[in-house]
Amino acid sequence: MIISRTFHALFFSVCATLALSLQAAEPPRKPHVFFLVGEPEYHTELTLPAFAKAELEPLGIQSTFSIHTDETTDEFPNLDSLPSSDLLLISTRRRHLPPEQLELIRTYIAAGKPVVGIRTASHAFGKRKGEDEGSWENFDKEILGTTYGGHYGTGLISHVKPLAEALRHPILTGFNPAEFTCPSHLYKNTILGPNVTILLEGHVEGEGKQEPVAWVNTREKQRIFYTSLGAERDFEVPQFRRLLLNGITWALGLPAPAEQTPPAPQPDPASAAKAQ
I need a surface site. Which of 1, 205, 231, 267 has the fewest CB within 10 A? Predict the structure, then answer.
């Protein structure tokens, strides 16, 4: 009887030790970014997957894409993966989602999970033609902390530079502080909320007025990052790629890569005039 009890105790002890060893050997869960993409102008259905593969995948960050390509429907695919994601990245333009899909997004954001928006995310969810009210017309003000006010003319080169007082922010880790140019036309976002911290400002040639280009908005400790950059050719600019990468890692609570961003190539006026 004593031998039997001793054997059982030893058996369960070995099993417990083995279970703990197996548990310790399990790889850590990969951070998961959910990309909501639906804008026909800047081709982020191509640039963002390529960016994720080149920049996020080597860091062990998993990506899921919901790309709206069927203009006969307002529905986005794969949205059932959103609730389990760690970060929502939005690149949509005036989309009017079905009520249940929009509610899924509202619920996700209301839970305090991080959000990253690029370019047209400042007018991400709009109203259908002929309707008085949009699905989420105040998304820019409520979530991103801005009021989208249109943009400067196309073909005008944007000169962008980080604010000196913002260089200590984690999103600007390894970021080259020198002024650089982007081929995309500059957005107007001069009305910002009280919880916004501006990281980058920019102006166009012939205009002295500075516009905020990238910032964070802290809503009850929720991490929100937005940049008005993100046109197709912006992805060719090292500073923009570094900015987006750092914005994503910061929103996920991860350290930014330590490498320094090289100087950006300077586009000539002729090629910039073709940028959208």
Answer: 1
- Average pLDDT of the chain? 84
Cβ pair 142, 220 in contact under 8 A: no
Distance separating alpha carbons of residues 226 and 143, to the nearest angstrom: 10
How many other C-beta atoms can be found within 10 angstroms of the C-beta atom of residue 113? 18
Cβ atoms 141, 195 nearer than 8 A: no
Secondary structure E strands in the chain: 32-38, 62-67, 87-92, 115-118, 146-147, 158-162, 180-182, 191-192, 196-204, 211-219, 222-227
How far are the Cα atoms of 95, 189, 244 from residue 45, in angstroms, in the given order? Answer: 15, 24, 16
User: What are the CA-CA distances from residue 53 to residues 47, 49, 186, 254 (Å)?
Assistant: 10, 6, 27, 18
Over 50: is that where the pLDDT of 96 sits? yes
237-258: pLDDT as tens digits: 999 999 999 999 999 999 988 7
